Amino acid sequence: MAAERALRAFWPVWTIIFLTVAGFAFGVSAQLSPTALWAGLAGVAVLLAVTIARGVMRFRLPSREEALERLDRTLPGRPISALLDHPAIGADDPAAQSVWAAHLRRMELRAGAARAPAPDLRLSRQDPFALRYVAATALAMALLFGTIGRVGEVGEAVSLGAGPAVASGPSWEGWVEPPVYTGLPSLYLNEILADAFETPEGSRITFRSYGEPGAITLSTDVGPMPTEAADAYAQSVTVERSGTFTVTGPMGRSWEISVTPDAAPAVALDGEVEGEPPGQMQFAFTATDDYGVVSGTATIRLDPQAADRRYGLAVEPEPREALVLDLPMPFRGSRSEFTEVLLEDLSEHPFANLPVSLTLTVTDEAGQIGTVSYDIPRLPGRRFFDPLANALIEMRRDILWNRENAPRAAQVLRALTWNPEPDLDEGVYLQIRTAIRRLESGVGSISTETRDQVAEILWNAAMELEVGDLDDALERLRRAQERLSEAMQQGASDEEIAQLMQELREAMDDYMQQLAENARPGEDNPDQGGERMEMSMNDLEEMMRRIEELMREGRMAEAQEMLDALQQMLENMEMVQGGEGGDGPQTPGQQAMEGLQDTLRDQQELSDDAFRELQDRLNPNRPQSGQQPGQQGQQGQQPGQQQGQQGQPGQQPGPPGQQQGEGETGPGGGGPEGLPEGQGEGGENGEGMTLAERQEALRRLLEEQQRRLPGAGTEAGDEALRQLDRAGRAMEEAEGLLERGNIAGALDAQSEALEALREGMTELGRALAQEQMGQEPGQGQAEGNMAPDRPLQDPLGRQAGNSGSFGSEEAMADREEAFRRSRELLEELRRRSAEQERPEVELDYLRRLLDQF
Prior knowledge:
Elements: H1 2-25, H2 28-31, H3 34-58, H4 64-72, H5 79-84, H6 94-112, H7 131-145, H8 153-157, H9 164-167, E1 171-177, E2 187-188, E3 196-200, E4 204-210, E5 217-220, E6 234-238, E7 243-248, E8 253-260, E9 266-269, E10 274-276, E11 280-288, E12 293-302, E13 323-326, E14 337-345, E15 356-364, E16 369-376, H10 387-401, H11 406-418, H12 426-441, H13 448-467, H14 473-490, H15 494-517, E17 520-521, H16 537-552, H17 556-571, E18 576-577, H18 588-618, H19 691-707, H20 715-739, H21 743-771, E19 799-800, E20 806-807, H22 815-833, H23 840-852
């Protein structure tokens, strides 16, 4: 109780004392004039006197009775008051006295268990603004960051005469401030009692003197002498080397200062420069510095002397700027020592797959640089397993090495396209021919812009050959299998094999999805009699795992046999939906997508016909399948003929010296570009329309489809409209070129229209998916000839409804059984999603299911 009363009475006293001490510790006395300092001290003294007097008046020592009352209030039944009390009546009654005695015994027991209560030291009612906490915080900051010894200087700073010099004589003080990036604290020279100390290089010593000018001077050889006059009150020195710092005059001192040098940063590779399929480069590096690395770069330069200087690399390479990449820095934590990984896709860079020198450079805060260089035999880049794609990439490398290789590259590309394979895509063929024309357009040598354009064309053609057209799932599946077979034969690395296996899985998933989307409604079909083999997705995945296991064991022949069997099964696979009524009525989005698919197919057929007619022009004597040579250009086909019998795109386009599709004027020309009248209608269809008329009809059909396109207002829907507009403009351009007989130019425009149509359909599908958010595509059961009575189901057994979404419309008779089944399904989903060895597409599907639960 005495502590409580003393605290409440005298808390302003120690609050004022704490604030005053903190102010003096931070050098307030040095900033005030003697008059202001005297006034401040007088004010503090008055406040202290008032608060002490007020505290003495309020403070009163607690009495014994007050202590007993305070203790009694903490006990149940107030036993102390009962022990001090006596009965008012019944003093002569033995029974009353007996009861009173028993009551006193119980109160004695309670009083014996009494403990002194804890003091109540809360001052929130006396100090509502928490000034005591402000004072305590100020004192703590003074103890941590201030100088308590400077409180004693208050007496020296106060004088009754002309100033400090008269009362106490000259004085000085100094600070040593290390560079900020070191994170080291400042040193107060007046408190350094030792004769020597260490400080980092670049530290700044600030010296300040008080009193008569020139009474205190300094001398040092740790750095250049301060530019201020010797009798200046404030001077500063930057520490550059070890030496002596001496203060001459009253309270003079001298120190030996040892400079801690700032070490240069260092960096080194942590392992090897590796490739991350399909075409990324990655390497780990470790950087160190005594105070921390600020930034770093990786510089890659071509090393022509280490290259295999044959064929296109026999000539000297053209000068090319080094490739500079920023090294990743840690976002948090210390940068004095760390390890990071740089991952970049350099597959399209001219240095890809060539020997290079790698220089790692790091810089610290002081501007010091650490560097190290390595010779890399091959800069990781994308590898192409398709033979034609590999040849295109080699020609691309040669022209990027030196433009003198352009004639040789054009000659090799002409040889590649002289008699192409029958299944060569027309778009790839036209890209290669375009590259040939541009390579041969230069006189002497091609320009830098032409070289870069040809390199881009060859890269796109090679990628299309290697990866394939993603819109055709079956073709992509075949390409993935062919690339995997080629990689096994060429002895590809484990990482590349794993990447190709992943691509094969993705292609198989796309193919299965396409089968599910085109599945036939279940119906009685007499052709489905006989034996059939049913397979599930788990069976296919088990085959994939077995193939991968055989390749890891080096049993490539067995793996190839199983891969061939898998390919045959997938190509013969059929998926059938069960139920009555099939998929039901189509939505507007499905109708629009189906219409665009028909337009894309018709445009592709028109391009094929134009390509065949171009071949016929370049080689008039080429025999035709199903018609006589003299029948070219007549009014359409005979009833028994098929459109695809007019020629194949893989047949030779003509002699190497002849440019493709230029439509040169020949003798006797009455038709476009000098062709005889009636020539150029060899691409007519069965309805007697010319190629230009068919192109016009397709363009008008596309315009009609655009007006009914759903998804307007969304980002994906607007992008689909823009792509279809681009396709319409390309069709209009192709129409005009066909009318003028320039079939080669029309094929380029038709290729652009096909590309725009595919991108528009992709964006339309994205817009439709956004409108039907929450509906997941089903995963059907796959089989050789799947039984028609088996409905399309997802992994949870839900059937597909008319809208294409999965769900269950069956009534649940027993709700408890349904709840139990739901819990079991949820636990199974969680168990499967925790198995990280499952394919990523399956894990992603399981996570989406869990998100909805």
